[in-house]
């Protein structure tokens, strides 16, 4: 007879969704108020240009549908994503504003791109042909943006003759493919003013060529968050495409750029908090190791908190410098993280107990305690800010003030 883990008469009906069960252990919190504030700061820095927020990678792991709803509610008139799947997901959640798909997606997704009324990037002849074919099959034109390459070198030609070939193809396909605008990515706007100025000049030349072939009404987009620090990147730009700036984050090197002094970007506010529960406490009574490999040496008398975050949630490797805040104290991680938990030294926090929240990014509780910035954590884990937000995979809660966590007793 096959053993049953739960007898039929003992089957239980779930009372909570799995996502809420996970959120009881750890969560990212996004402050809606901070995002609205940052949007206003970015608008001021953009000087009347349109704001097209980038929600790629599920809004850097912060929940694209919820963030999109917040931004559209705040008056944003267009959004950008990397893939057709990301754009389709926003449409499925009722987002109706124009959506630019910035990466060149695979041919298999061209039909869905048209069906969901997305604006794909085209950077070469094959993309022009595929979207022309879709338009002919559907009996209606598709709208695209021309992605041009001025040094980022992920999509599109660098040589002017090759650019002209793409422009000629778009001109011939104009009955089926309508070009709404032209955009490019800057490669060094967070740290190199000279190279950014060179790429901005190259982009303006490309825009002039595109308008000569496709018409003067093309929209133009070059600057993202850090591009706002470069007058050259804003020259002639209609749309700014901010990403991590919406969450109050700037690459540290950007504060050394000439455009930082007096910039409105200094008023951005951190919008993201990451915290995880203490699951258990262990007091070491003899010299021992820790975890599967037992490579971390533990001295008697140390007290460890087992915290609900591990490598399945993005904390990987041996990071002795990685720390969390618990009851106002900084507690270093010990040893390597496990799948869904890691150990932190809480010897100096005698009042720690199971159920406490440890803050990994953000300010503790009532906003008056110490703070761990995303930049601190990114440096400790050797990640960029972009990588950090997306790497920390956990439930996300959009908080608008009424859900402020209550401090532990």
From TrEMBL:
<dbReference type="Pfam" id="PF01168">
    <property type="entry name" value="Ala_racemase_N"/>
</dbReference>
<protein>
    <submittedName>
        <fullName>Alanine racemase</fullName>
        <ecNumber>5.1.1.1</ecNumber>
    </submittedName>
</protein>
<dbReference type="Pfam" id="PF00842">
    <property type="entry name" value="Ala_racemase_C"/>
</dbReference>
<dbReference type="InterPro" id="IPR029066">
    <property type="entry name" value="PLP-binding_barrel"/>
</dbReference>
<dbReference type="InterPro" id="IPR009006">
    <property type="entry name" value="Ala_racemase/Decarboxylase_C"/>
</dbReference>
<dbReference type="InterPro" id="IPR000821">
    <property type="entry name" value="Ala_racemase"/>
</dbReference>
<keyword id="KW-0663">Pyridoxal phosphate</keyword>
<dbReference type="InterPro" id="IPR011079">
    <property type="entry name" value="Ala_racemase_C"/>
</dbReference>
<dbReference type="InterPro" id="IPR001608">
    <property type="entry name" value="Ala_racemase_N"/>
</dbReference>
<feature type="domain" description="Alanine racemase C-terminal">
    <location>
        <begin position="271"/>
        <end position="399"/>
    </location>
</feature>
<keyword id="KW-0413">Isomerase</keyword>
<dbReference type="GO" id="GO:0008784">
    <property type="term" value="F:alanine racemase activity"/>
</dbReference>
């Amino acid at each position: 007879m096959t053993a049953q883990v739960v007898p039929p008469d003992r089957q239980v009906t779930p009372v909570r969704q799995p996502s809420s069960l996970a959120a009881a252990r750890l969560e990212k919190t996004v402050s809606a108020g901070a995002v609205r504030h940052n949007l206003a700061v970015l608008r001021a820095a953009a000087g009347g240009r349109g704001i097209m927020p980038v929600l790629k990678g599920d809004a850097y792991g912060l929940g694209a549908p919820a963030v999109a709803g917040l931004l559209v509610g705040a008056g944003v008139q267009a959004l950008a994503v990397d893939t057709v799947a990301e754009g389709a997901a926003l449409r499925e959640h009722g987002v109706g504003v124009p959506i630019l798909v910035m990466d060149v997606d695979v041919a298999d997704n061209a039909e869905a791109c048209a069906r969901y009324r997305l604006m794909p990037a085209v950077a070469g002849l094959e993309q022009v042909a595929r979207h022309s074919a879709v338009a002919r099959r559907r009996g209606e034109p598709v709208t695209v943006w021309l992605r041009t390459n001025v040094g980022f070198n992920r999509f599109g030609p660098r040589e002017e003759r090759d650019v002209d070939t793409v422009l000629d193809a778009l001109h011939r396909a104009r009955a089926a493919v309508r070009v709404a605008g032209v955009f490019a990515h800057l490669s060094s706007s967070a740290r190199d003013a000279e190279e950014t100025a060179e790429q901005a000049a190259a982009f303006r030349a490309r825009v002039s060529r595109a308008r000569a072939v496709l018409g003067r009404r093309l929209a133009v987009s070059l600057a993202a968050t850090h591009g706002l620090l470069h007058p050259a990147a804003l020259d002639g730009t209609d749309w700014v495409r901010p990403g991590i700036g919406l969450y109050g984050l700037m690459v540290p090197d950007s504060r050394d750029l000439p455009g930082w002094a007096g910039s409105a970007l200094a008023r951005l506010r951190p919008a993201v908090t990451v915290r995880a529960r203490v699951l258990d406490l262990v007091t070491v009574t003899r010299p021992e190791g820790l975890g599967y490999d037992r490579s971390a040496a533990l001295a008697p008398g140390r007290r460890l908190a087992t915290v609900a975050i591990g490598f399945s949630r993005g904390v990987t490797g041996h990071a002795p410098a990685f720390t969390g805040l618990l009851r106002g104290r900084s507690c270093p991680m010990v040893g390597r993280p496990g799948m869904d938990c890691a150990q932190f030294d809480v010897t100096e926090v005698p009042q720690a107990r199971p159920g406490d929240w440890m803050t990994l990014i953000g300010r503790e509780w009532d906003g008056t305690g110490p703070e761990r910035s995303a930049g601190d954590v990114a440096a400790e884990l050797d990640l960029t800010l972009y990588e950090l937000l997306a790497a920390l995979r956990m439930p996300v809660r959009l908080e608008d003030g009424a859900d402020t966590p209550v401090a532990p007793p």
